[in-house]
Model the fold of this input.
Amino acid sequence: MVQNAFGNEAMGYTQVKEWFWQFVEVWSLVESDECSGRPSMRWNQLMIDKMHSAMLDNQRITNTELFDKLGL
Done:
């Protein structure tokens, strides 16, 4: 069906299936360390207030501009 829509630009079913099984095989090897407690948060009330103030100053500010301005 995908090949009908995209023609020769799309990968074949066999290749997709092979990539999928390679992903599953590698994913099963990944081990994650146990975490204790809540994750650490970088946000505090001061940072939230700074962000709120910056957004009130310029309501069209982008995420990138906001994060650059706040040093995140």
Remarks:
- The two ends are 44 Å apart (CA to CA).
- Residues 5 and 65 are 38 Å apart (CA to CA).
